[in-house]
């Protein structure tokens, strides 16, 4: 058992007393301890932190169990964690360091993690760095991921614009829980907030993916509509030459909670590049159990001629389940032109180009005709 000298015991007891005063927001006691000169204002304390509010580690590192129960923190971190606003102000007035990371997070990271808008405001007023990175590589805004942290996010956004762009892609990523296959309304709200404050929807990551690529990968029609209304480009390619609609094709059959028909409509009505006709069998391979999607895709072309691969891409049991639809598919996709009504639709859509979604809504046409122009599925092809 480790033995301590009387001096070491006294310092240890003083640290415990200092920590308790911080946690209980006892600003007067904190001042008295600091004025003794026995403890530095930025001394590092060991704090119980099973939720890792104070801690951030590099991804991929293994940690022993005891590391996940306590964290290292300075007094200002503790004040933010426990919402000790008055004591935090005292520490800052006494010259406490505001951007240090004893366990991988600055006080501003912690304020956003616990959704403490008042402490966020206080720290920013004392020139906390809004773009500092935690040990895991995240900015404070990346920790604003719940409805309760919206006020924190607003304060950060008002102070810097460059941060909004990286945060939008991160927020887009977290809108979907891959394990539970559910969508997060809180992250949708964060994306909405960022876009309302002019975050760039076309900013690209190192692999050239945009937020729209993320939304398409999640098959998230709510986020896709937000991004497209904000000016997201449907034709941007990632480092492998893939556009958002190709991402969508890869995941259509593994997103049970999604409404893929809406996703394809949104992209095609905002000028997405269509799949090369000779490769259309890949659409059938991915979407054979979603006849509405196949209908939308087929109707985006003036005419498609089937190849031998088409029928092979549709399992027999699926063909039987959707027999009326697939019979109509092979009836219209022949060597003869489609109906005059369909060709007229294609001509109008071509003339509107990238403004199809907005342009159709402004045409003096009855609602059923507008839905027809925007590729609303009807269950059969003709």
TrEMBL record:
ANK repeats lie at residues 103-135, 207-239. One of its GO terms (biological process) is intracellular signal transduction. The keyword S-adenosyl-L-methionine does not apply. It comes from the Eukaryota. Pathway: Protein modification; protein ubiquitination. Keywords: ANK repeat, Repeat. Residues 335-373 form the SOCS box domain. It holds the Pfam family Ank_2. InterPro entries: Ankyrin_rpt, Ankyrin_rpt-contain_sf, Multifunctional_regulatory, SOCS_box, SOCS_box-like_dom_sf. PANTHER family: ANKYRIN REPEAT AND SOCS BOX PROTEIN 2 (PTHR24189:SF50), MYOTROPHIN (PTHR24189). This is SOCS box domain-containing protein.
């Amino acid at each position: 058992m480790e033995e301590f000298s009387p001096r070491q015991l006294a310092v240890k007891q003083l640290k415990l007393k200092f920590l308790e005063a911080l946690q209980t927001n006892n600003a007067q006691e904190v001042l008295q301890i600091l004025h003794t000169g026995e403890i530095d204002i930025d001394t590092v304390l060991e704090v119980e932190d099973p939720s890792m509010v104070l801690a951030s580690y590099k991804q991929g590192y293994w940690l022993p169990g005891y590391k996940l129960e306590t964290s290292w923190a300075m007094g200002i971190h503790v004040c933010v964690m426990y919402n000790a606003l008055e004591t935090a102000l005292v520490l800052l007035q006494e010259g406490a360091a505001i951007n240090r990371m004893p366990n991988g997070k600055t006080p501003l990271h912690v304020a956003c993690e616990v959704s403490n808008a008042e402490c966020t405001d206080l720290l920013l007023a004392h020139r906390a760095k809004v773009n500092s990175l935690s040990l895991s590589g995240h900015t404070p805004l990346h920790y604003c991921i719940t409805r309760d942290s919206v006020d924190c996010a607003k304060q950060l956004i008002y102070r810097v614009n460059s941060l909004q762009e990286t945060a939008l892609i991160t927020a887009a990523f977290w809108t979907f829980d891959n394990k539970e296959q559910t969508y997060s309304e809180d992250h949708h709200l964060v994306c909405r907030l960022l876009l309302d404050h002019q975050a760039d929807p076309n900013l690209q990551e190192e692999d050239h993916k945009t937020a729209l690529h993320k939304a398409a990968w999640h098959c998230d029609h709510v986020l896709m509509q937000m991004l497209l209304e904000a000016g997201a480009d449907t034709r941007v390619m990632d480092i492998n030459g893939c556009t958002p609609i190709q991402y969508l094709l890869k995941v259509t059959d593994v997103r049970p909670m999604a409404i893929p028909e809406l996703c394809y409509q949104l992209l095609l009505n905002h000028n997405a590049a269509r799949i090369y006709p000779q490769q259309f069998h890949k659409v059938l391979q991915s979407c054979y159990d979603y006849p509405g999607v196949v209908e939308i895709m087929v109707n985006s072309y003036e005419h498609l001629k089937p190849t031998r691969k088409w029928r092979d891409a549709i399992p027999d049991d699926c063909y039987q389940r959707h027999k009326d639809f697939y019979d109509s598919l092979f009836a219209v996709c022949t060597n003869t032109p489609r109906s005059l009504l369909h060709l007229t639709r294609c001509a109008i859509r071509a003339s509107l180009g990238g403004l199809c979604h907005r342009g159709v809504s402004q045409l003096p046409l009855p609602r059923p005709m507008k839905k027809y122009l925007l590729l609303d599925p009807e269950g059969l092809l003709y």
